[in-house]
Amino acid sequence: MTEPVIGFAGLTHLGLVSAAAAAARGFEVVAFDPEPARVAAIAGGELPIVEPDLPDLLAKHRDRLTWTADPTTLGRCDVAYVAPDVPTDDTGASDLGPVRALVDVVARALPDSAVLVVLSQVPPGFTRGLPGLAERRFSQVETLIVGRAVERALHPERFIVGCAEPTLPLPRSLAAYLGAFGCPVLPMRYESAELAKISINVCLAASISAANTLAEVCERVGADWSEIVPALRLDRRIGPAAYLAPGLGIAGGNLERDLATVCRLADRHGTDASVVRAWLGNSAYRRDWALRQVHARVLSRRGDPTLAVLGLAYKENTASTKRSPSLSLLAALAPFRVRVYDPCVAPRTEFHPRLEGTATALDACTGADALVVMTPWDEFRALRAEAVAARLRGRTVIDPHAVLDPVACRAAGLEQVVLGVAEEADA
C-alpha cells in the first residue's frame, strides 16, 4: 500500500499544527481552508497563530504541503480531517455551525473510498448525527496544549478514535496514518470518544481547582505550596505530571467549554454536576487574586498609582487573550494609569482606557508604584530583580507564578507576592 494522502480542512490552530505534524511524519498533505485570503497568507509564511516551532516545521516540510482554498483538491485525499477551531461564547457554549458546514464541503469533495474524520472538539452525539456512510466516518480526540502544540502533535500519548463499530478494524488508510506516530490507538464508539476529551479536561480542572484551593490555604496558614507539591508528585495515585501549579483560574476557553458541556448534559439527563459548578465558581474567584493583592498592597496605600503589568495573553507562548486573567485585571483597574508590555499581544484601548504600551518589560516598570506579572513568559524570567527595582518607584511585585527569582527579589528590597506562599515566608 502506498502512503495515504492526508487532508486537513480548517487552517486555524488545530488544523495548522496537525497538518504540520502529518507532513513531518512523511505524508503528503492537502491543507484546505474556505477563506482564500487566509490560505494565501499562510502559504506566504504569515501564520494566524503564535505557536513555538510551528513556522520552522512548516518551512522544513513545505514540499509535502499543498495549501488550497479549492475544495476539489481534497479529492486527492485518502483521509481528510475536519479541524477548524470551535468558537465558544461567554457561557462556554460552542458554535458548531462552521464545523457542520465544513463537514458538508469536505464530504462532497472526497472520493467514495476516502475516510472523513472530525478532529474538532464536538459534544457527544455530533459525529453519529452526520450524514454519510458510518463506516467511512470517524471522530478523533485532539489533546494539543496551546504553547506546546507542536510537541504534542509530533509525539502524541495516544489516539482516541470514535467509530460506528469499534470492534471492526480501522480502514487501512487511517490505520497507516495513525500507526506512523508509534503510540497506542484506542477505538471506541463515537460518543465515548467525544466524551473522552471532556473527561480529560474535567480531570485537569479538578486538579487545577484542588491546587488553587490549597495554595490559598497555604497563603493564610504560613505554608508554601511549592514545598508540598514534590510530596504529591511522588504519590503514584497523583503522579509526576499532575496539574499542581496554582494559577489565576481556568482560562483560554477550552476547559471552560468542556465544564459547561458537562453541566448542560447533566441538566438535560438529570445527573448531578454540582462539583463542576463549584470548580467554575472557584475559577472565577481565583481570577481576581491579583486584583485583591493590588487593592490590599497598592490602591489602599496610594490614591492615584501607576501600575506596570507584564503579559496580556492568557498564558505564555500564545497570542490568545481568551478569558485572560490579565484583561480581567485591566478592566477592574480602568480608573488608574497602567503601563503594559507583552511579547506577542499589542495593547488596545478596549483593554483599558488609560493603557500605555511600552517597548520592553523594563520600560513598563519605569516609574510604576507596583509591578504585576500576569503571564509567565520566558522573557520575563530573564529579568534581573535589581534592574526591576531600579526602574520601579514602589517596592511591590505581584508575581503569582514566581517568574522573578524570589531570593533576588528579597536582595533587591522588593516585596514579592506569589501564589501559594504565605506572606511571612516572603519576608
Summarize the SSE layout with pairings.
Blueprint: E1 6-9, H1 13-24, E2 29-32, H2 36-43, H3 54-60, E3 65-68, E4 79-82, H4 97-109, E5 115-118, E6 137-140, H5 149-154, E7 159-163, H6 172-179, E8 185-189, H7 190-221, H8 225-233, H9 254-269, H10 274-287, H11 289-299, E9 306-310, H12 325-332, E10 337-341, E11 355-357, H13 361-365, E12 370-373, H14 378-381, H15 385-391, E13 396-398, H16 406-411, E14 415-417, H17 423-426
Parallel strand pairs: 1-2, 1-4, 2-3, 4-5, 5-6, 7-8, 9-10, 9-12, 10-11, 12-13, 13-14
Antiparallel strand pairs: 6-7
Structure, explained:
The protein is an alpha/beta fold. The protein folds into 3 domains: 6-189, NAD(P)-binding Rossmann-like Domain (Rossmann fold, 3-Layer(aba) Sandwich), CATH 3.40.50.720; 198-286, N-(1-d-carboxylethyl)-l-norvaline Dehydrogenase, domain 2, CATH 1.10.1040.10; 288-426, 3-Layer(aba) Sandwich (Rossmann fold), CATH 3.40.50. 40% of the residues lie in helices and 13% in strands. Strands 3-2-1-4-5-6-7-8 form an 8-stranded mixed beta sheet, with helices on both faces. A 6-stranded parallel beta sheet has the order 11-10-9-12-13-14. Helix 1 (13-24) packs across helix 3 (54-60) and helix 9 (254-269) packs antiparallel against helix 10 (274-287). The N and C termini lie far apart (67 Å). The model has no long low-confidence stretch (mean pLDDT 94).
